[in-house]
Design goal:
A hairpin with a 2-residue loop joins strand 4 (about 55-60) and strand 5. This protein has a six-stranded mixed beta sheet with strand order 6-7-8-3-9-10, sandwiched between helices. Strands 2-1-4-5 form a four-stranded antiparallel beta sheet, covered by helices on one side. A four-stranded antiparallel beta sheet has the order 12-13-11-14, with helices on one face. It has ten helices and 14 strands. It is an alpha/beta fold and about 300 residues long. It is about 35% helix and about 30% strand. The chain folds into three domains: about 1-75 and about 150-225 and about 290-304, P-loop containing nucleotide triphosphate hydrolases (Rossmann fold, 3-Layer(aba) Sandwich), CATH 3.40.50.300; about 85-145, no CATH class; about 225-290, Alpha-Beta Plaits, CATH 3.30.70.
Length: about 300
């Protein structure tokens, strides 16, 4: 049973179907990637989980029961469309948002001060929001999303607007928060972040669920059964009938990098045995697993 279970969610806006009988489980204590091209239905699903909008049919369960407004108060939501009150002081803005999530003034001030120090922005407390750069404002909004230690965090494009240094800071904080027990839904187009951070994913396209499961499991499922072989020798390796075909072989002063395609039912051990029996001097031998970016493009293109 997931922390969040979406069962048969359908949402229409007039004639447009934003979500079409979508069911997906978000495991407790995991980082869950919500993926899909623009217009796939990701934001609609996030808004339904947050009870900002109501589905035409289906239901959302939180910890095994229908989600309520009090459950939503336990969620930290960072929307893609950021927004802070530009004329307020940063500290006052952060205090206001933290107290909206049920924190006392004393508790909010203590936790916010700690976060501001952690992010190196303690000198911004008295500045006006309008004085902040986009990246600085993003930091403040991230802090106000997580400061109340929600059991569920929904982060929509959390790395948008950050330079590489600050993006890495946010990545480390996401991992730390997850290690401390928070379940995190990460909606992003950054497939590198998906591979680095996510345990499980759901890929949406045209209002429907295309695939869901563990990241490693999905990457292996969509692999081509190819092997990268690095070896030394004067002569290139030849295909072995019934075992493998050589798809490519690059020779750099006697050091070869080859890609082998395994025949159906053949194991890596079979290939190694065949190569060693031919006297091949092997330096490296590894399975080639497709990147999430390639799988994303493949599945979305096939659905087009």
């Amino acid at each position: 049973m997931g922390l969040i279970e979406c069962k048969g969610i359908t949402k229409r806006f007039g004639e447009k179907v934003a979500l079409d009988n979508l069911s997906v489980d978000i495991p407790k204590g995991k980082i869950f990637g919500l993926l899909g091209p623009n217009g796939a239905g990701k934001t609609t699903l996030i808004r339904i989980i947050n009870r900002i909008t109501i589905p035409n049919s289906g239901e959302v369960l939180f910890d095994g029961r229908p989600i309520t407004q009090s459950d939503v108060e336990k969620i930290g939501y960072l929307p893609e469309e950021r927004g802070l009150y530009r004329k307020m002081e940063v500290g006052d803005q952060a205090m206001y948002l933290a107290q909206l999530k049920g924190m006392s003034a004393a508790q909010a001030r203590k936790e916010l001060k700690n976060w501001f120090v952690r992010f190196g922005i303690q000198d911004w407390w008295k500045k006006k929001v309008e004085e902040l750069s986009k990246g600085m404002a993003q930091k403040v909004q991230f802090i106000t999303t997580v400061v109340h230690k929600p059991s569920l965090m929904i982060l929509d494009e959390p790395f948008s607007g950050f330079d590489p240094v600050n993006a890495e800071l946010i990545r480390k904080e996401i991992l730390r928060l997850n290690e401390e027990g928070s379940t995190i839904i990460l909606s992003t187009h950054n497939m590198e972040s998906v591979e680095e951070l996510c345990d499980d994913i759901a890929l949406l396209n045209k209002s429907k669920l295309v695939v869901t499961g563990g990241v490693d499991e999905i990457r292996r499922h969509y692999g081509n059964n190819n092997i990268e072989l690095i070896y030394t020798g004067e002569q290139p390796v030849a295909s072995a009938e019934g075992v493998f075909k050589v798809l490519s072989d690059e020779n750099n002063v006697g050091r070869h990098t080859a890609v082998l395609s395994l025949e159906p039912g053949v194991s890596s051990n079979d290939v190694l045995s065949s190569l060693l029996s031919e006297g091949v001097s092997i330096n490296s031998f590894k399975e080639l697993i497709p990147r999430m970016n390639d799988i994303f493009i493949k599945l979305v293109t096939e659905e087009a």
